[in-house]
Amino acid sequence: MMKKGVQMAYYYHTIAGPIGATLGYSNRTKEPYFFINLGYEF
Questions:
Q1: C-alpha to C-alpha distance for 5 and 24, rounded to whole angstroms
Q2: pLDDT digits over 1-42, tens only?
Q3: What long-range pairs does 7-15 form, CB within 8 A, spacing at least 24?
Q4: pLDDT score recorded for residue 31
Q5: What is the pLDDT of residue 29?
Q6: Are 33 and 26 in contact (CB under 8 A)?
Q7: Matching InterPro entries, A to Z (predicted)?
Q8: How many CB atoms lie within 10 A of CB 26?
Q9: Whole-angstrom Cα distance, residue 31 to residue 35?
Q10: DSSP codes, 18-37
Q11: What is the pLDDT of residue 9?
Q12: What's this model's pTM, rounded to 2 decimal places?
């Protein structure tokens, strides 16, 4: 089975660090997903 999907993301740089949101869909899970990211990754 071939994996296919779409994703949209937006990030904004603030004084406290980047803030972002990601919304997507994958045919493997057949469910949409949503992530919110706050700050830097270490």
A1: 7
A2: 788 999 999 999 988 889 999 999 999 888 999 999 998 766
A3: 11/37
A4: 92
A5: 87
A6: yes
A7: Omp85-like_dom
A8: 14
A9: 13
A10: EEEEEEEEETTTTEEEEEEE
A11: 95
A12: 0.70
For residue 32, CA distances in Å to 6, 13, 24, 29 come to 10, 25, 6, 8
pLDDT at site 6? 95
- Side-chain half-sphere exposure of 42, counting CA atoms within 13 A: 2
Contacts of 14 (CB under 8 A, 6+ apart): none
Q: State the Cα–Cα distance between residues 36 and 28, nearest whole angstrom.
A: 21
CA neighbours closer than 13 Å in the CB half-sphere of residue 36: 1
Q: What is the pLDDT of residue 42?
A: 67
| Residue 25 to residue 34: CA distance in whole angstroms | 9
Domain boundaries, the chain: 6-38
